[in-house]
C-alpha cells in the first residue's frame, strides 16, 4: 500500500512541475518580464526554482528522487544563464576592408568634344554660260574623276559665230599682206604716166598763156580767153602735184603705222575667235576634282541661266573633322600627328590642319580642323558626328577613393567612414578599431573611382566596401 502511494505521489509531483513551469513562464510574459535579456532570465528562473522547492516541501515530499531532479535542473539553468551572460557582454566585431588615402594637388580629367565630318571641298557645279542643257553624263551617287565630263549645253550659235569671225579675220589678214608687200610695178608705171601727162598739159598751157599775154594788148586775144588759159594752167599744176604725190607714195611703199593698224585688226579678230573657243570648251561641264555626285539638280532640255547649279559634288576622298573647342583647349593642341578621334566605335588618327582665327559668337568656341587619315574615306561619310577626347589637368587638392566607399549624405554632401584607434583595453579581441563618420564633397567621377575633398587627412584609412553594414562608433577589425 505504501509503494502504491509513493508512485501516485511521484506522478502528481511531475504533473505539478510541468504545470508550474508553464504557468511561471506564461505569467512572466504576461507581466512584461519575458526573458528577453539574459540577466532577467536568470532572476526569473531562480525565483521559479525557489518557489517550486517550497511547494514540494509543503506537500510533504521528501523523496530523494525529487531532490536530485531539482538540483539537476538548478545547475543546468545556472550554467546556461552564465553562458548567455558572457555572450551578451562580448562585443560584436565586423571585419571591414580599408584603403589608406593620400592627398594630391591635381587630377587629370578626360573631356569629350563633339564635331562633324566635313569634306575638304564641296561644290555646286553649273555652267558659266546660259543655254539649253543638251546632255547629262553623270547621276547622283556616281564617283567621278578630275576632268571627267558631266554635262553639255547646246553650242550651235557659238559655232556659227566662230565661222563668221574666221572669215573676217581672213579678209583683214589679206589686206595686211598687201600692205606689207607694197605696190605693184604696174601701179607705179601708171602713176608715172599720169604725172608725165599732167606735165605735158602744164607746159602747153604755159606756152598758150605766154602767147595770149602778148596778143591781149593788140586786142588779138580777148581778156576772157587769156583768163581761162591762166586758170586752166593752175588746175593742171594742181593735178600734176597730186599725181606726183601718188607716184612718190607708191615708190616709198605703205607706211609703218598703217601696217600696224591693220595688224591690230587681225589680232582683234584672233582674240574674238579665241573667246568663242573658250565658250565652246565651257559648254562642257567637267569635274574640278575627284569625288561623288551628291545631287543632280536639272534634267536634259532645261534652259539654264548663267551659274545655275546642275550638280553638287563632294570630295569624299579627303575628309576633315571640324570640332568646336574652348580657347584654352585649342591652344594646347599641337600640329604633330597623333590625335585620335572617335566616329561611332571607330578610332581614327588625325592631324591638326588649322584653327579658326575667331570665336563663334553662338557657341563661344574656337573651331579646330583636323585632317583625317586617308584610310578613313572608306568607312566615314560627310556629315557624321565625330568626338575628340582630351585630357585636362585640374588644379585641386583632394583624395582619390573608390565609388564603393561613399554613401549619400545631406545638403549635397556625401558620407564615408574612417576607422580610428579605440581605447577599449579589456577586450579579448585584439586590434579593435572604431568607425568614425566623415562628410566630404564630390568633385569629379571617373569610372569606378571619385575625387573628393573634405574632412580627410593623408594616412586616414577609409572603409571601402560594405558601408551599409557600418554605423558611427561601431567596433570593427581589418580583414586579413
Features:
8 helices, rod-shaped, disordered N terminus, conserved putative lor/sdh protein from methanococcus maripaludis s2 fold, alpha+beta, Elongation Factor Tu (Ef-tu), domain 3, 22 strands, 6-stranded antiparallel β-barrel
Task: Describe the protein.
- The protein has 480 residues and is an alpha+beta fold.
- The protein has five domains: 2-89, no CATH class; 94-106 and 396-478, conserved putative lor/sdh protein from methanococcus maripaludis s2 fold; 114-118 and 315-394, Elongation Factor Tu (Ef-tu), domain 3; 127-151 and 284-313, RNA polymerase II/Efflux pump adaptor protein, barrel-sandwich hybrid domain (OB fold (Dihydrolipoamide Acetyltransferase, E2P), Beta Barrel), CATH 2.40.50; 160-278, no CATH class.
- It is built from eight helices and 22 strands.
- The protein has helices at residues 2-30, 38-58, 64-89, 156-181, 185-217, 223-252, 256-282, 327-331; strands at residues 94-96, 98-100, 104-119, 122-126, 131-136, 143-144, 149-153, 284-286, 291-296, 303-304, 309-314, 319-325, 339-343, 346-359, 366-372, 385-402, 407-408, 414-421, 433-446, 449-454, 461-463, 475-478.
- The protein has a six-stranded antiparallel β-barrel. A four-stranded antiparallel beta sheet has the order 4-11-9-6, with no helix packed on it.
- Helix 4 (156-181) runs antiparallel to helix 7 (256-282).
- The longest helix is centred in the middle third of the chain and has 33 residues, at 185-217.
- Residues 1-10 and 16-42 have low confidence and may be disordered.
Amino acid at each position: 500500500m505504501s509503494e502504491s502511494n509513493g508512485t501516485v505521489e511521484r506522478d502528481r509531483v511531475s504533473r505539478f512541475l510541468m504545470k508550474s513551469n508553464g504557468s511561471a513562464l506564461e505569467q512572466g510574459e504576461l507581466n512584461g518580464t519575458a526573458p528577453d535579456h539574459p540577466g532577467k532570465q536568470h532572476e526569473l528562473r531562480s525565483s521559479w526554482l525557489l518557489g517550486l522547492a517550497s511547494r514540494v516541501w509543503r506537500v510533504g515530499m521528501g523523496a530523494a528522487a525529487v531532490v536530485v531532479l531539482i538540483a539537476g535542473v538548478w545547475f543546468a539553468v545556472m550554467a546556461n544563464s552564465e553562458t548567455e551572460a558572457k555572450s551578451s557582454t562580448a562585443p560584436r566585431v565586423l571585419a571591414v576592408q580599408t584603403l589608406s588615402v593620400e592627398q594630391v594637388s591635381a587630377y587629370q580629367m578626360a573631356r569629350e568634344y563633339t564635331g562633324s565630318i566635313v569634306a575638304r571641298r564641296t561644290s555646286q557645279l553649273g555652267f558659266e554660260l546660259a543655254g539649253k542643257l543638251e546632255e547629262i553624263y553623270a547621276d547622283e551617287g556616281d564617283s567621278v574623276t578630275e576632268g571627267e565630263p558631266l554635262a553639255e549645253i547646246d553650242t550651235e550659235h557659238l559655232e556659227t559665230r566662230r565661222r563668221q569671225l574666221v572669215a573676217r579675220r581672213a579678209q583683214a589678214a589679206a589686206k595686211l599682206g598687201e600692205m606689207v608687200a607694197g605696190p605693184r610695178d604696174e601701179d607705179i608705171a601708171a602713176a608715172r604716166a599720169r604725172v608725165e601727162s599732167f606735165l605735158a598739159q602744164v607746159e602747153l598751157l604755159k606756152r598758150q598763156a605766154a602767147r595770149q599775154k602778148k596778143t591781149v594788148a593788140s586786142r588779138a586775144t580777148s581778156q576772157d580767153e587769156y583768163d581761162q588759159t591762166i586758170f586752166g594752167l593752175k588746175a593742171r599744176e594742181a593735178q600734176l602735184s597730186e599725181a606726183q604725190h601718188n607716184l612718190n607714195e607708191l615708190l616709198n611703199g605703205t607706211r609703218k603705222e598703217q601696217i600696224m593698224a591693220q595688224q591690230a585688226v587681225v589680232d582683234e579678230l584672233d582674240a574674238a575667235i579665241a573667246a568663242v573657243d573658250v565658250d565652246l570648251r565651257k559648254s562642257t561641264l567637267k569635274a574640278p576634282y575627284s569625288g561623288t555626285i551628291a545631287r543632280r539638280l536639272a534634267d536634259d532640255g532645261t534652259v539654264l541661266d548663267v551659274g545655275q547649279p546642275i550638280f553638287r559634288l563632294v570630295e569624299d576622298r579627303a575628309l576633315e573633322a571640324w570640332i568646336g573647342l574652348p580657347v584654352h583647349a585649342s591652344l594646347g593642341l599641337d600640329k604633330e600627328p597623333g590625335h585620335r578621334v572617335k566616329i561611332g566605335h571607330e578610332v581614327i588618327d588625325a592631324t591638326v590642319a588649322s584653327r579658326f582665327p575667331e570665336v563663334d559668337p553662338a557657341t563661344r568656341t574656337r573651331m579646330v580642323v583636323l585632317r583625317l587619315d586617308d584610310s578613313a574615306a572608306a568607312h566615314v561619310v560627310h556629315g557624321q558626328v565625330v568626338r575628340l577626347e582630351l585630357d585636362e589637368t585640374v588644379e585641386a587638392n583632394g583624395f582619390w577613393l573608390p565609388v564603393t566607399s561613399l554613401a549619400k549624405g545631406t545638403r549635397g554632401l556625401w558620407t564615408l567612414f574612417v576607422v580610428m584607434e579605440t581605447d577599449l583595453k579589456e577586450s579579448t579581441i585584439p586590434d579593435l578599431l572604431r568607425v568614425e563618420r566623415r562628410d566630404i564633397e564630390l568633385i569629379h567621377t571617373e569610372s569606378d573611382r571619385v575625387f573628393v575633398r573634405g574632412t580627410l587627412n593623408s594616412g586616414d584609412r577609409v572603409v571601402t566596401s560594405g558601408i551599409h553594414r557600418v554605423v558611427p562608433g561601431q567596433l570593427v577589425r581589418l580583414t586579413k
